């Protein structure tokens, strides 16, 4: 008589893989820099923080510094990056969105991705644009209240 056994790896749930993104709150006094999305296929016309995906082998701080250079042409020192918020967002099967505030940088913010961004504009932190991507708007509300963590869309 033969006995069939299931291996334990077949009965365990699949390990979740999460995408990480970084979001930059570039602050000039009470103002925050936003870009207006275009030609992306997602929320075109909405205002959004400079942001991007975390790449393999990259820390969230390194990703933020890279994205700032690529998107708006500013240089940020790691010591000038301040953690503001992390959001576990349900979109695309689950993402971790890291929000960082920077008040000191080198260079003048310039739109280096005009194919994806129609404009850059400073908005007062207490008078943000009406048309924002919803999770970003929610994160900004948490940041205003100094809430370090949130869950969105689950």
TrEMBL record:
Residue span, Nudix hydrolase domain: 17-154
Keyword Metal-binding: no
Listed Gene3D superfamilies: Nucleoside Triphosphate Pyrophosphohydrolase (3.90.79.10)
Necessary cofactors: Mg(2+)
Ranges that cross the membrane: none
Pfam families documented for this protein: NUDIX (PF00293)
Hydrolase among keywords: yes
UniProt-listed InterPro entries: Nudix_hydrolase, NUDIX_hydrolase-like_dom_sf, NUDIX_hydrolase_CS, NUDIX_hydrolase_dom
Keyword tags: Hydrolase
Domain of life: Bacteria
Family per similarity comment: Belongs to the Nudix hydrolase family.
Name recorded for this polypeptide: NUDIX domain-containing protein
Source organism: Nocardia amamiensis
